[in-house]
Amino acid sequence: MKFLILFAVIAAASADFLTADQAGVLQSAWSNIKNSEVDILYAVFKAYPDIQAKFPKFVGKDLDSIKGSADFALHATRIVSFITEVVNLSGSEANVPAIQTLVSELGNNHKSRGVSKAQFNEFRTAITEYASTHTSWGDNVAAVWNQALDNVYAIIFAKLG
Ligand code: HEM
């Protein structure tokens, strides 16, 4: 008689979070670009037109001509303010549930809009390129930046499924 024993090891779902020191590095780097909302969204759309094409208001339009519009500024501000909110919450374990709630909602909203993991990865590449060329950057900042994005993307990707 054979017994098949299945050991299911379920890793405790404790989210990674930045230490206060790491958060300070992130907040300082982000503070240099957080008011460049329009330039950031422009850089993302320029590098990845498939992201622009997901927006009913922007699909099929010339990027340089929409860049100055109120709709463009509004959406750029929504995205960048969201990031600022999460960056500001980082560095304290007590804020981890708030971050998880906000980022999970973002994942759910974007799943229902049909945004793919590949597109989120494109966004990551574009915003990292922007940050690395518009704020003080070095190995230390890059490591914290990547850790923060890994943490947030783990939550988003779990929702995108
Ligand atoms: C990666 C590809 C992405 C695509 C294709 C995408 C697409 C969209 C679309 C179509 C909307 C609705 C716009 C409207 O109401 O007219 C939206 C809303 C929004 N997006 Fe994204 N998005 C992406 C990534 C992100 C990321 C990385 C963030 C934040 C860091 C973000 C933050 C938001 C926010 C805050 C809103 C408005 C609130 C909401 O309705 O959820 N998006 N996005």
Describe the structure.
This protein is mainly alpha-helical and 161 residues long. It has a single domain (20-160), classed as Globins (Globin-like, Orthogonal Bundle). Helix content is 67%, strand content 0%. The chain has eight helices and no strands. Helix 7 (117-134) packs antiparallel against helix 8. The radius of gyration is 18 Å and the shape is globular. The protein starts with 19 loop residues before the first helix and ends with a helix. 18% of the residues are buried. Mean pLDDT is 91; it is low at 3-15.
Spell out the helices and strands N to C.
HHHHHHHH
Structural class: mainly alpha
Task: Give Rg in angstroms.
Answer: 18 Å
Shape from CA axes? globular
* Poorly predicted ranges: 3-15
The proportion of residues in beta strands is under 5%
Number of beta-strand segments: 0
> Which CATH architecture is right?
Orthogonal Bundle
Features:
mainly alpha, Globin-like, disordered N terminus, binds protoporphyrin IX containing FE
List the helices and strands and how they pair.
Layout: H1 20-31, H2 37-47, H3 49-52, H4 63-66, H5 70-89, H6 96-112, H7 117-134, H8 139-160
The structure holds protoporphyrin IX containing FE (HEM).
In short:
By secondary structure, the chain is mainly alpha-helical. It contains eight helices and no strands. Bound molecules: protoporphyrin IX containing FE.
